[in-house]
Specification:
The chain is of the alpha+beta class. The chain is 27% helix and 20% strand. The chain contains 4 helices and 6 strands; from the N terminus they run E-H-E-E-H-E-E-E-H-H. The longest helix has 11 residues.
Length: 127
Amino acid sequence: MSPSQLYVGGISRSVRERDVEKFFKGFGRITNISMKGNYAFVDFDDHRDADDAVYELDGRRLLGDRVRVEFAKGNPRYGGGGGLRERRRFSPPPNRYGPPLRTKYRLRVENVSTRISWQVMEMKFSP
């Protein structure tokens, strides 16, 4: 199993390989599509393309059916077994853009009530 294999669940039996290929168009080079009835496996050439596809396409509709897009179970990239749904139970999903970078810019906030904690202020200004 490649580290960039995705499981696509909840598709109807009328969905063809080319429909799945069109659904994933624009997310990178697909090396293999394996149709298995009401689900499929899609292999990407690059794991970053697979990450993007999971993030953007999970829960979208394919020919009228809402589909589930997640990393295939047993994927070595996420420690084997469990897939994305299992990983989310135990830890938050990975940040797509990495940790925040420290910059030379600062924000100064004045005239704020003393009842406001720094945590609330941080939430107000976080992306």
